[in-house]
Amino acid sequence: AMAGGLEPHLAALRRELGGPAVLSVLVALIAVAITFLLWRFVQGRKSSRKAVLLLGLCDAGKTLLFARLLSGRYRDTQTSITDSSAVYRPSQDKSTNVTLIDLPGHESLRLQFLERFKAAARAIVFVVDSVAFQREVKDVAEFLYQVLVDSTVLRNAPALLIACNKQDVTMAKSAKLIQQQLEKELNTLRVTRSAAPTSLDGSGTGGPAQLGKKGKDFDFSQLPMKVEFVECSARGSKGEEGEADLEALQKWLVKVA
Description:
Elements: H1 2-17, H2 20-48, E1 51-56, H3 62-71, E2 84-88, E3 98-102, H4 110-117, E4 121-129, H5 133-148, H6 151-156, E5 159-165, H7 175-192, E6 227-231, H8 247-256
Parallel strand pairs: 1-3, 1-4, 4-5, 5-6
Antiparallel strand pairs: 2-3
């Protein structure tokens, strides 16, 4: 009945526009316009997220890495109890910049600071102490799991870099080994943490968000965000006097900015 009621109006519109062909073009143009506006909206939301969060356990080297990226110089650091932020331009050739935010790694603080900044995250650098990794693997995986099942992180899917720091030390584990061990631990956590809340803000209902693909062993390629691993050293092979080895990290920051 409604279609019948609209037909006289559509017929009149066709006559005014010169026939059905013009009307089809008009409908197509409207569809293109709506698609373009939706694309702009999505891009706008992404470009409004300008923060690169530095996460990780205590003593992973986040604050020294933060200082090195900003000034290139070494400085003594202490365990952070609050966030530090600064505007960082990854490339001298481009005018784009991001806001680097160094978040505390202490167990009692890290989730509340992540809660505060996660919605603004364009990218996340998760810093791992490659020397202490074997000893800390369960704690590292636990924190990373909490980040990866967070509803806001899953929805926005910021680029994720696992920065395997302290590679200047002989005992440091390789990025490849760290990736394999983390995948194994996260796979175990999927089962053991089945009663955990879905997200930090408690907005989820039911069980936690599914990490990876059901029925398959977990690996990072199953996540909605692109995950990369790099080896780096905020301290550098010559300690305080030498240059840091952050080239792979800096290249990644140019890419995500």
